[in-house]
Amino acid sequence: MENQPIQVIGGGLAGTEAAWQIAEAGIPVILHEMRPKRFSPAHHTENLAELVCSNSFGAMASDRAAGLLHEELRQLGSIIISKADEHAVPAGGALAVDRGQFGQDLTQTLANHPLIEFRRGEVPAIPDGIVVLASGPLTSPDLAADLQRFTGMEYLSFFDAASPIIVGDSINKNIAFMASRYDKGEAAYLNCPMNKEQYLQFREALLQAEKTELKDFEIETAKYFEACLPIEEMARRGEDTMRYGPLKPVGLSDSRTGERPYAVIQLRQEDKAGQLWNMVGFQTNLRWGEQKRVFQMIPGLENAEFVRLGVMHRNTFLNAPQLLSPSLQFKQRPTLLAAGQLIGTEGYTAAAAGGWLAGTNAARLALGKEPLILPPTTMIGALFEYISSATPKHFQPMPPNFGIIPDLGVKIKSKPEKYGKYRDRSLADLANWKTQINNV
C-alpha cells in the first residue's frame, strides 16, 4: 500500500499538519484544497492553514491547557506549531502569529516537499483508499452530503464568528493604552477604557443594532458555542456579562492615570509590524454598517478603519463519540480518518493536534503498522479520548482543558501547582511513550 498516495481533503490547520506528517514518513500525499476555485463564507485567501478568526493560538505557558498542547506538539514535531513559533507577534502571555506570513510560509513549505502534490478544487465525495478528512466546519455541500450518507447520521451544528480587524494608525493612542493584564509579560495589548456611562450606552447600542438575518433552517438548528459567543449575545444575557467576559477590567490600569476603567476593550496585535489589531472577543453577527457605527462608539476607536468586519457562519461537526476511535479512525472504515473542527475539537492547536495524529496514523496504515493512541494523561491523548467516548446525545465541541485529563490522585488546592503537576506528568508520559514507540 505504501506506493499509493494518501489523500488529505482540506488545507486548513488539520489538513496541512496531516499532509506534512504523511510526507515526512516517506509516503506520497495528495492535498486537496478547494480554494481559490471555491471559497467558504469565512476564508479570504488561498493559503494553507488560513486563520479565519483570531490570530492567537492561546496561552503560551505550559501550565495552561493550550500551552501544554503547544509543548506536546513541539515534542512531536508539529509543522504548525513550528511555524507559529517562527512567525509569533507580541501578545502578552499568548502565542499569536502574523497570519499572512504564517499562511504563506506553510503554503510554500508544503509546495516544496517532493512527496506532496497540491490539487486545487472541490472534492465532491470521499475517495477510496487511505484518506484523511480535514474539510473543516464549512465542508462543501456535496462532500457534506456524501459524508452524511456514509455515516447515516445528521450533523450537529453551532455558530462561530470572526472578530473585526482595525488599522493601527486609526486608533486614538491618546485614549487607548498599552498594557497586559496584571502586567504579565510584555505590554502587548491596546486597551480602550470605558466609564460606566459609556459602557451602558455601548451595551444599549449593541442590543438595538441590526443583525444579519439567518435562514430558517439555521435558526432552527443554531447553537452558540459558549467559548465563542457573539458580543451582542453577551450583551443580551445581562448588564455585566461583557464585563465578566472580554471587557473585564480586572488586572488592567492606565499607567497615565493609575485608575482601573469600568470596562476595557482589548486589541491584540495581528502582524509583526503592529499595523493591524484584532478586537479580542468581538465575534459578531451584526450587519457590517452597524458594526462600524456601534464599534466606533468605543473610546479610542472613534475613527477606526476596519480592514475586516466580523462575520458569522454555521459550523458543522460530527458526532465523534459514535463514529470515531481515539486514533481518529472511523469505526466503520478504519482507512478513513478525520481531524480538525469537523470532529468536534475547538481551537487552532487542537486542529493541529488532530492533523498530527490523523496524518501519523494514515502513514502507519500505509506502512502496515498499528495506529497510535496517545496516553490519556497527555493533553492530546485526553482530548481525543474525550471526543471518542463522550455521551453522544449531549456531545458539543471541546477545547483543550485540564478537566478532561485523569486526576492526579492527590488533593492539591493551589491551581497553579496542580496545573504544573499535570504538565510535568504529561510531558514525562509523552517522553516515555515516544521512547516505547521508537523501540517498537
Summarize the topology:
Layout: E1 6-9, H1 13-24, E2 29-33, E3 56-59, H2 65-75, H3 79-86, E4 88-89, E5 94-97, H4 99-111, E6 116-120, E7 131-133, H5 141-151, E8 156-162, E9 165-167, E10 177-179, E11 189-194, H6 196-208, H7 216-221, H8 231-237, E12 263-269, E13 276-279, H9 288-295, E14 306-308, E15 311-317, H10 320-323, E16 329-330, E17 333-338, H11 348-366, H12 379-389, H13 415-439
Parallel strand pairs: 1-2, 1-7, 2-6, 7-17
Antiparallel strand pairs: 3-5, 4-5, 8-15, 9-13, 9-14, 10-11, 11-12, 12-13, 16-17
Helix pairs in contact: 1-11, 2-11, 2-13, 6-8
Q: In a nutshell, what does this entry contain?
A:
The protein has 440 residues and is of the alpha+beta class. The chain is 34% helix and 17% strand. Strand 12 (263-269) and strand 13 (276-279) form a beta hairpin.
Task: Please tell me about this protein's structure.
- This protein is of the alpha+beta class and 440 residues long.
- It has two domains: 6-155 and 318-439, FAD/NAD(P)-binding domain (3-Layer(bba) Sandwich), CATH 3.50.50.60; 162-314, Beta Barrel (Elongation Factor Tu (Ef-tu), domain 3), CATH 2.40.30.
- Helix content is 34%, strand content 17%.
- The protein is built from 13 helices and 17 strands.
- The protein has helices spanning 13-24, 65-75, 79-86, 99-111, 141-151, 196-208, 216-221, 231-237, 288-295, 320-323, 348-366, 379-389, 415-439; strands at 6-9, 29-33, 56-59, 88-89, 94-97, 116-120, 131-133, 156-162, 165-167, 177-179, 189-194, 263-269, 276-279, 306-308, 311-317, 329-330, 333-338.
- The strands form four sheets. It has a six-stranded mixed β-sheet with strand order 6-2-1-7-17-16, covered by helices on one side. Strands 10-11-12-13-9-14 form a six-stranded antiparallel β-sheet.
- The longest helix has 25 residues, at 415-439.
- It is globular.
- The two termini are 21 Å apart.
- Mean pLDDT is 90; it is low at 216-222.
